[in-house]
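Morning F.,

Quick status update on the modeling queue. The single chain you submitted on Monday has been processed. Sequence for confirmation:
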Amino acid sequence: MNKSEGHTVAFVLGGGGVLGANEVGMLRALLQAGITPDLVLGTSIGAVNGAVLAADPTMGSVERLARLWRDADEAGIFSGGMIARLSTLAKTRTHAHPNEPLRRALEQALPVELIEDLPITFQCVAASIERAAEHWFTEGPIVDAVLASSAVPGLLPPVELNGENFLDGGLVNSIPVDRAVALGAGTIYVLQVGRIEQPLSKPTRPWEVALVAFEIARRHRFAGQMEALPQSVEVHVLPTGEEIRFNDLSQLRYRDASKTAARIERAYEASIAYLANAETAS
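Structure tokens below.
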């Protein structure tokens, strides 16, 4: 625990694909401000970022994450052209990419094999297919758990563990603030990818219908969690420093890492400013 605060500090890292680079900038800002977690919770790409942080809650983990994001193309996590992806989809009938490249990247980035061996308490969530429910990984092989939490439907394969199959945790709890509260967090820092920062508007084009519908499904639970927060819990939603345009199809380019460095820097600058203002206000 952060003894000076007298209560548990939780970092909650939400899902969001390539937009998860924002979370790296937020982590840099938090650690630079001397804020470290007692508890790390992650969903999807937030599970990837969170696991690396929980293994080493120092600036070293931020640098490792920055390298992991920078080298994602070289690692081949979402490699292959359209023909290769269609070929994989035709063979598997369920996904366009294998998850072996992501597994290798995680194994290289994580110094321990089991969740319970991490120096910081870490949990990640995935969606159980058979139970149609959220499943929290609290122990066992950390790479398997993160792969399950990150199994984006249609892109990466479902992960089978102990006879149960799992898909991306964002399907059931994209930003799990409620889990942090249930585990006794007194202060919660929400690291999100930007999709909750701008209000939605009525769709006017065919593709906007799907995008807005997805955002409604994604946001409604988080909004409910925030409304139900106990008065004793302090929550900080860190800003990304950028605007997500929901009528922009470029946000669906899940393999586009060209803006990674800029996203990290913008989120860092915006979060540093936010934390400074929060400190002044307190």
